[in-house]
Amino acid sequence: MDAIVFAIRLAIGALLIVAGALKAHDGVTATASTIAAYRLLPPSVVGPLAVALPYAEIVLGGYLVAGFFVRAAAFVAAVQFVIFAAAVASLVVRNLPADCGCFGSAIPTPPSWAHVAVDVGLAIAAAVIVRYAPGAFAVDRTFCGGRACGRTARNRSVMNRAERRPPMPSLTQQRALAQRRRMMLFVSLGILAAAVITAVVLGSRVPKSASDAPITAQLGVGQKAPDFQVSTTGGPFQLSSALGKPTLLEVFATWCPHCQRETAVLNSLYARYGKTVNFVAVSGSPYDVTSQGNETQADVFSFAQKFRVRYPIGFDPELAVAKSYLQGGFPTLVLISKDGIVQAIRDGEIPERDLDRAIGASVAGHRPDPKMAG
Protein backbone atom coordinates (compact mmCIF):
# COMPACT_ATOMS: atom_id res chain seq x y z
CA MET A 1 0.00 0.00 0.00
CA ASP A 2 2.90 2.35 0.69
CA ALA A 3 4.00 2.16 -2.94
CA ILE A 4 0.47 2.92 -4.19
CA VAL A 5 0.12 5.90 -1.86
CA PHE A 6 3.54 7.14 -2.97
CA ALA A 7 2.49 6.92 -6.64
CA ILE A 8 -0.76 8.80 -5.98
CA ARG A 9 1.15 11.44 -3.99
CA LEU A 10 3.55 11.99 -6.88
CA ALA A 11 0.77 12.18 -9.48
CA ILE A 12 -1.44 14.63 -7.58
CA GLY A 13 1.53 16.66 -6.35
CA ALA A 14 2.97 17.01 -9.86
CA LEU A 15 -0.48 17.92 -11.21
CA LEU A 16 -0.88 20.70 -8.64
CA ILE A 17 2.63 22.06 -9.25
CA VAL A 18 2.11 22.22 -13.02
CA ALA A 19 -1.35 23.80 -12.65
CA GLY A 20 -0.05 26.42 -10.22
CA ALA A 21 3.01 27.22 -12.36
CA LEU A 22 0.90 27.73 -15.49
CA LYS A 23 -1.50 30.05 -13.64
CA ALA A 24 1.45 32.02 -12.22
CA HIS A 25 2.89 32.33 -15.72
CA ASP A 26 -0.42 33.77 -17.01
CA GLY A 27 -0.34 36.52 -14.40
CA VAL A 28 -2.79 37.89 -11.88
CA THR A 29 -5.08 39.71 -14.30
CA ALA A 30 -5.68 36.66 -16.49
CA THR A 31 -6.28 34.43 -13.47
CA ALA A 32 -8.66 36.99 -11.96
CA SER A 33 -10.64 37.14 -15.20
CA THR A 34 -10.92 33.34 -15.25
CA ILE A 35 -12.13 33.23 -11.65
CA ALA A 36 -14.60 36.07 -12.24
CA ALA A 37 -16.05 34.21 -15.23
CA TYR A 38 -17.45 31.57 -12.84
CA ARG A 39 -19.74 34.26 -11.38
CA LEU A 40 -19.63 32.64 -7.95
CA LEU A 41 -17.41 34.90 -5.83
CA PRO A 42 -17.77 38.53 -4.73
CA PRO A 43 -15.40 41.01 -6.41
CA SER A 44 -13.47 41.62 -3.18
CA VAL A 45 -12.36 37.97 -3.13
CA VAL A 46 -11.35 37.58 -6.78
CA GLY A 47 -8.14 39.64 -6.68
CA PRO A 48 -6.53 38.09 -3.58
CA LEU A 49 -7.58 34.60 -4.69
CA ALA A 50 -6.01 35.16 -8.12
CA VAL A 51 -2.72 36.01 -6.39
CA ALA A 52 -2.78 33.21 -3.83
CA LEU A 53 -4.19 30.25 -5.79
CA PRO A 54 -1.23 29.54 -8.11
CA TYR A 55 1.34 29.59 -5.32
CA ALA A 56 -0.93 27.69 -2.92
CA GLU A 57 -1.18 24.91 -5.51
CA ILE A 58 2.60 24.87 -5.97
CA VAL A 59 3.23 24.66 -2.21
CA LEU A 60 0.53 22.03 -1.72
CA GLY A 61 1.93 19.96 -4.58
CA GLY A 62 5.44 20.27 -3.16
CA TYR A 63 4.25 19.00 0.23
CA LEU A 64 2.68 15.94 -1.39
CA VAL A 65 5.69 15.13 -3.56
CA ALA A 66 8.06 15.48 -0.61
CA GLY A 67 5.72 13.65 1.77
CA PHE A 68 5.65 16.59 4.17
CA PHE A 69 2.55 16.80 6.42
CA VAL A 70 0.99 14.32 4.00
CA ARG A 71 -2.33 13.84 5.74
CA ALA A 72 -3.06 17.58 6.06
CA ALA A 73 -1.87 18.35 2.53
CA ALA A 74 -3.94 15.53 1.04
CA PHE A 75 -7.02 16.64 2.98
CA VAL A 76 -6.68 20.20 1.65
CA ALA A 77 -6.16 18.84 -1.87
CA ALA A 78 -9.29 16.68 -1.59
CA VAL A 79 -11.37 19.66 -0.45
CA GLN A 80 -9.92 21.75 -3.30
CA PHE A 81 -10.84 19.14 -5.91
CA VAL A 82 -14.39 18.89 -4.53
CA ILE A 83 -14.73 22.69 -4.78
CA PHE A 84 -13.34 22.64 -8.32
CA ALA A 85 -15.81 19.89 -9.28
CA ALA A 86 -18.75 21.88 -7.91
CA ALA A 87 -17.60 25.07 -9.65
CA VAL A 88 -17.14 23.36 -13.02
CA ALA A 89 -20.50 21.63 -12.64
CA SER A 90 -22.11 25.03 -12.10
CA LEU A 91 -20.61 26.22 -15.42
CA VAL A 92 -22.05 23.19 -17.22
CA VAL A 93 -25.49 23.57 -15.64
CA ARG A 94 -25.63 27.32 -16.37
CA ASN A 95 -24.17 26.82 -19.88
CA LEU A 96 -21.65 29.60 -19.34
CA PRO A 97 -19.01 30.02 -22.09
CA ALA A 98 -16.05 30.12 -19.71
CA ASP A 99 -12.81 28.19 -19.61
CA CYS A 100 -12.22 26.17 -16.45
CA GLY A 101 -8.76 27.70 -16.12
CA CYS A 102 -7.32 24.68 -14.33
CA PHE A 103 -4.08 24.94 -16.31
CA GLY A 104 -4.23 28.63 -17.20
CA SER A 105 -4.36 29.63 -20.84
CA ALA A 106 -1.71 27.08 -21.87
CA ILE A 107 -4.16 24.15 -21.85
CA PRO A 108 -7.76 25.24 -22.58
CA THR A 109 -10.19 23.14 -20.56
CA PRO A 110 -13.83 23.79 -21.45
CA PRO A 111 -16.32 22.78 -18.76
CA SER A 112 -17.92 19.36 -19.11
CA TRP A 113 -19.29 16.54 -17.00
CA ALA A 114 -16.18 14.55 -17.88
CA HIS A 115 -14.08 17.28 -16.26
CA VAL A 116 -16.29 17.14 -13.17
CA ALA A 117 -15.78 13.37 -13.01
CA VAL A 118 -11.99 13.80 -13.20
CA ASP A 119 -12.04 16.28 -10.30
CA VAL A 120 -14.18 13.91 -8.24
CA GLY A 121 -11.75 11.09 -9.01
CA LEU A 122 -8.83 13.24 -7.89
CA ALA A 123 -10.69 14.04 -4.66
CA ILE A 124 -11.18 10.32 -4.03
CA ALA A 125 -7.49 9.67 -4.74
CA ALA A 126 -6.52 12.39 -2.28
CA ALA A 127 -8.83 10.79 0.30
CA VAL A 128 -6.96 7.51 -0.17
CA ILE A 129 -3.75 9.34 0.73
CA VAL A 130 -5.42 10.73 3.86
CA ARG A 131 -6.46 7.22 4.88
CA TYR A 132 -3.12 5.49 4.27
CA ALA A 133 -0.60 8.34 4.70
CA PRO A 134 2.28 8.88 4.43
CA GLY A 135 3.34 6.23 1.89
CA ALA A 136 6.90 5.42 0.84
CA PHE A 137 9.74 7.94 0.63
CA ALA A 138 8.01 10.55 2.80
CA VAL A 139 9.69 13.24 4.86
CA ASP A 140 7.07 12.49 7.51
CA ARG A 141 8.72 9.12 8.15
CA THR A 142 11.95 10.83 9.11
CA PHE A 143 10.46 13.51 11.31
CA CYS A 144 7.53 11.63 12.77
CA GLY A 145 8.90 8.23 13.62
CA GLY A 146 7.78 6.33 10.53
CA ARG A 147 4.17 7.54 10.79
CA ALA A 148 2.18 10.27 9.13
CA CYS A 149 2.67 13.46 11.15
CA GLY A 150 -0.36 14.02 13.32
CA ARG A 151 -1.14 10.33 13.88
CA THR A 152 -1.25 9.49 17.57
CA ALA A 153 -1.30 6.31 19.61
CA ARG A 154 -5.08 6.47 19.79
CA ASN A 155 -5.45 5.82 16.08
CA ARG A 156 -2.61 3.35 15.65
CA SER A 157 -5.28 0.72 15.03
CA VAL A 158 -5.72 2.13 11.53
CA MET A 159 -2.00 1.98 10.74
CA ASN A 160 -1.24 -0.20 7.79
CA ARG A 161 0.83 -3.35 8.12
CA ALA A 162 4.08 -1.72 6.95
CA GLU A 163 3.79 0.94 9.64
CA ARG A 164 3.40 -1.58 12.48
CA ARG A 165 6.80 -3.11 11.92
CA PRO A 166 9.09 -0.43 13.46
CA PRO A 167 9.38 -0.66 17.24
CA MET A 168 7.91 2.09 19.35
CA PRO A 169 10.47 4.87 19.97
CA SER A 170 11.80 5.48 23.46
CA LEU A 171 10.57 8.37 25.62
CA THR A 172 13.60 10.46 24.64
CA GLN A 173 13.00 9.74 20.99
CA GLN A 174 9.32 10.61 21.35
CA ARG A 175 10.21 13.98 22.87
CA ALA A 176 12.66 14.68 20.04
CA LEU A 177 10.04 13.74 17.49
CA ALA A 178 7.48 15.97 19.21
CA GLN A 179 9.92 18.87 19.05
CA ARG A 180 10.48 18.23 15.35
CA ARG A 181 6.76 18.15 14.73
CA ARG A 182 6.32 21.49 16.51
CA MET A 183 9.11 22.96 14.42
CA MET A 184 7.50 21.68 11.23
CA LEU A 185 4.13 23.06 12.32
CA PHE A 186 5.56 26.52 13.03
CA VAL A 187 7.39 26.56 9.70
CA SER A 188 4.23 25.55 7.85
CA LEU A 189 2.16 28.18 9.65
CA GLY A 190 4.82 30.75 8.81
CA ILE A 191 4.65 29.82 5.12
CA LEU A 192 0.85 30.00 5.22
CA ALA A 193 0.90 33.40 6.95
CA ALA A 194 3.38 34.74 4.39
CA ALA A 195 1.18 33.48 1.55
CA VAL A 196 -1.92 35.14 3.03
CA ILE A 197 -0.13 38.45 3.57
CA THR A 198 1.30 38.34 0.04
CA ALA A 199 -2.12 37.60 -1.41
CA VAL A 200 -3.75 40.52 0.41
CA VAL A 201 -0.98 42.97 -0.51
CA LEU A 202 -0.63 41.94 -4.15
CA GLY A 203 -4.35 41.39 -4.55
CA SER A 204 -4.96 45.03 -3.69
CA ARG A 205 -2.64 45.97 -6.55
CA VAL A 206 -4.57 44.10 -9.23
CA PRO A 207 -6.00 46.57 -11.78
CA LYS A 208 -9.41 47.68 -10.58
CA SER A 209 -11.33 46.30 -13.51
CA ALA A 210 -9.83 42.89 -12.79
CA SER A 211 -9.95 42.83 -9.00
CA ASP A 212 -13.48 44.30 -9.01
CA ALA A 213 -14.43 41.60 -11.55
CA PRO A 214 -15.36 42.58 -15.09
CA ILE A 215 -19.03 42.96 -15.87
CA THR A 216 -20.65 39.61 -16.54
CA ALA A 217 -23.65 39.83 -18.83
CA GLN A 218 -26.40 37.23 -18.78
CA LEU A 219 -26.01 36.29 -22.42
CA GLY A 220 -25.81 32.86 -23.98
CA VAL A 221 -25.34 31.21 -27.35
CA GLY A 222 -28.61 30.98 -29.27
CA GLN A 223 -30.07 34.16 -27.76
CA LYS A 224 -30.92 37.26 -29.76
CA ALA A 225 -28.00 39.69 -29.61
CA PRO A 226 -28.92 42.93 -27.78
CA ASP A 227 -28.99 45.90 -30.11
CA PHE A 228 -26.42 48.64 -29.55
CA GLN A 229 -25.20 51.79 -31.20
CA VAL A 230 -21.73 53.31 -30.92
CA SER A 231 -19.55 55.85 -32.73
CA THR A 232 -16.42 54.23 -34.13
CA THR A 233 -13.35 55.14 -36.12
CA GLY A 234 -15.23 53.80 -39.13
CA GLY A 235 -18.35 55.88 -38.45
CA PRO A 236 -21.58 55.19 -36.52
CA PHE A 237 -22.41 51.51 -36.02
CA GLN A 238 -25.77 50.05 -35.01
CA LEU A 239 -26.18 46.29 -34.84
CA SER A 240 -29.82 46.22 -35.96
CA SER A 241 -28.90 48.22 -39.07
CA ALA A 242 -25.91 46.02 -39.88
CA LEU A 243 -27.77 42.71 -40.10
CA GLY A 244 -27.55 40.78 -43.30
CA LYS A 245 -23.99 39.64 -42.65
CA PRO A 246 -22.26 38.28 -39.54
CA THR A 247 -20.81 40.61 -36.91
CA LEU A 248 -17.71 40.05 -34.80
CA LEU A 249 -17.88 42.19 -31.67
CA GLU A 250 -14.92 42.66 -29.33
CA VAL A 251 -15.32 44.22 -25.88
CA PHE A 252 -11.85 45.32 -24.82
CA ALA A 253 -9.89 47.41 -22.31
CA THR A 254 -6.99 49.65 -23.28
CA TRP A 255 -4.95 48.49 -20.25
CA CYS A 256 -5.48 44.79 -21.05
CA PRO A 257 -2.31 43.14 -22.46
CA HIS A 258 -4.43 40.35 -23.99
CA CYS A 259 -6.51 42.94 -25.86
CA GLN A 260 -3.35 44.64 -27.04
CA ARG A 261 -2.01 41.39 -28.47
CA GLU A 262 -5.37 40.44 -29.98
CA THR A 263 -5.32 43.55 -32.23
CA ALA A 264 -2.84 41.82 -34.57
CA VAL A 265 -5.18 38.83 -34.88
CA LEU A 266 -8.21 41.00 -35.58
CA ASN A 267 -6.29 43.13 -38.09
CA SER A 268 -5.38 40.00 -40.04
CA LEU A 269 -8.96 38.70 -40.01
CA TYR A 270 -10.35 42.11 -40.93
CA ALA A 271 -8.14 42.16 -44.02
CA ARG A 272 -9.59 38.77 -44.96
CA TYR A 273 -13.26 39.17 -44.02
CA GLY A 274 -13.79 42.94 -43.85
CA LYS A 275 -16.21 42.94 -46.79
CA THR A 276 -18.32 39.99 -45.66
CA VAL A 277 -18.32 40.46 -41.87
CA ASN A 278 -18.97 43.48 -39.64
CA PHE A 279 -16.03 44.07 -37.32
CA VAL A 280 -16.44 46.38 -34.33
CA ALA A 281 -14.48 46.76 -31.08
CA VAL A 282 -15.97 48.68 -28.16
CA SER A 283 -14.28 49.80 -24.95
CA GLY A 284 -15.67 48.03 -21.90
CA SER A 285 -13.65 49.31 -18.95
CA PRO A 286 -14.06 52.59 -17.06
CA TYR A 287 -10.28 52.78 -16.48
CA ASP A 288 -7.58 54.02 -18.81
CA VAL A 289 -4.33 52.33 -19.79
CA THR A 290 -2.81 53.11 -16.36
CA SER A 291 -5.76 51.41 -14.60
CA GLN A 292 -5.97 54.51 -12.39
CA GLY A 293 -7.62 57.28 -14.42
CA ASN A 294 -10.96 57.35 -16.19
CA GLU A 295 -11.16 56.14 -19.78
CA THR A 296 -11.77 58.82 -22.42
CA GLN A 297 -12.40 58.83 -26.15
CA ALA A 298 -8.88 60.14 -26.65
CA ASP A 299 -7.51 57.08 -24.79
CA VAL A 300 -9.37 54.73 -27.13
CA PHE A 301 -8.16 56.56 -30.24
CA SER A 302 -4.62 56.56 -28.85
CA PHE A 303 -4.92 52.80 -28.34
CA ALA A 304 -6.04 52.41 -31.97
CA GLN A 305 -3.07 54.41 -33.21
CA LYS A 306 -0.49 52.73 -31.01
CA PHE A 307 -1.52 49.22 -32.04
CA ARG A 308 -2.38 50.19 -35.63
CA VAL A 309 -5.98 49.02 -35.38
CA ARG A 310 -7.53 48.83 -38.87
CA TYR A 311 -11.03 47.67 -37.94
CA PRO A 312 -13.70 50.05 -36.49
CA ILE A 313 -13.12 50.77 -32.82
CA GLY A 314 -15.34 52.83 -30.54
CA PHE A 315 -15.61 54.44 -27.10
CA ASP A 316 -18.64 53.62 -24.94
CA PRO A 317 -18.70 55.99 -21.94
CA GLU A 318 -21.83 54.36 -20.48
CA LEU A 319 -20.41 50.81 -20.82
CA ALA A 320 -23.76 49.81 -22.30
CA VAL A 321 -22.19 47.30 -24.68
CA ALA A 322 -20.08 45.77 -21.89
CA LYS A 323 -23.15 45.40 -19.69
CA SER A 324 -24.87 43.45 -22.46
CA TYR A 325 -21.97 41.36 -23.74
CA LEU A 326 -18.93 41.16 -21.44
CA GLN A 327 -18.32 37.60 -20.21
CA GLY A 328 -16.03 37.89 -17.20
CA GLY A 329 -12.78 38.82 -18.91
CA PHE A 330 -11.09 41.07 -21.44
CA PRO A 331 -11.22 40.73 -24.34
CA THR A 332 -14.64 39.21 -24.87
CA LEU A 333 -15.39 38.27 -28.47
CA VAL A 334 -18.93 37.60 -29.66
CA LEU A 335 -19.83 36.22 -33.08
CA ILE A 336 -23.33 37.22 -34.15
CA SER A 337 -25.10 35.68 -37.13
CA LYS A 338 -26.47 37.68 -40.04
CA ASP A 339 -29.92 37.24 -38.41
CA GLY A 340 -28.79 38.76 -35.11
CA ILE A 341 -28.40 35.52 -33.10
CA VAL A 342 -25.42 34.94 -30.81
CA GLN A 343 -23.47 32.06 -32.35
CA ALA A 344 -20.32 32.01 -30.22
CA ILE A 345 -18.86 33.74 -27.15
CA ARG A 346 -15.41 33.51 -25.66
CA ASP A 347 -13.28 35.68 -23.43
CA GLY A 348 -9.50 35.94 -23.40
CA GLU A 349 -7.06 35.80 -26.28
CA ILE A 350 -8.24 33.60 -29.14
CA PRO A 351 -5.79 32.13 -31.67
CA GLU A 352 -6.28 33.38 -35.21
CA ARG A 353 -6.96 29.88 -36.54
CA ASP A 354 -9.87 29.41 -34.11
CA LEU A 355 -11.43 32.77 -34.95
CA ASP A 356 -10.86 32.17 -38.65
CA ARG A 357 -12.63 28.82 -38.48
CA ALA A 358 -15.58 30.27 -36.55
CA ILE A 359 -15.99 33.29 -38.84
CA GLY A 360 -15.65 31.13 -41.95
CA ALA A 361 -18.40 28.82 -40.69
CA SER A 362 -20.72 31.75 -39.98
CA VAL A 363 -20.11 33.31 -43.40
CA ALA A 364 -20.84 29.95 -45.05
CA GLY A 365 -24.12 29.69 -43.15
CA HIS A 366 -22.92 26.93 -40.87
CA ARG A 367 -22.99 26.79 -37.07
CA PRO A 368 -19.56 27.63 -35.57
CA ASP A 369 -18.16 26.15 -32.38
CA PRO A 370 -20.00 28.04 -29.60
CA LYS A 371 -16.73 28.73 -27.76
CA MET A 372 -14.65 29.35 -30.91
CA ALA A 373 -12.31 26.63 -29.69
CA GLY A 374 -11.37 25.29 -33.09
What labels describe this entry?
single chain, about 375 residues, alpha/beta, Glutaredoxin, 2 domains, 7 strands
Structural topology:
Blueprint: H1 2-26, H2 28-37, H3 43-66, H4 70-94, H5 113-132, H6 139-143, H7 161-164, H8 171-203, H9 208-211, E1 229-232, E2 235-238, E3 247-252, H10 257-273, E4 278-283, H11 297-306, E5 313-314, H12 320-325, E6 332-336, E7 342-347, H13 352-363
Can you characterise this structure?
With about 375 residues, the chain is α/β, with parallel strands linked by helices. The protein folds into two domains: about 210 residues, no CATH class; about 150 residues, 3-Layer(aba) Sandwich (Glutaredoxin), CATH 3.40.30.10. It has 13 helices and seven strands. The protein has a five-stranded mixed beta sheet with strand order 5-4-3-6-7. A two-stranded antiparallel sheet has the order 1-2. Strand 1 and strand 2 form a beta hairpin. The longest helix has about 35 residues. The chain is elongated and about 85 Å long.
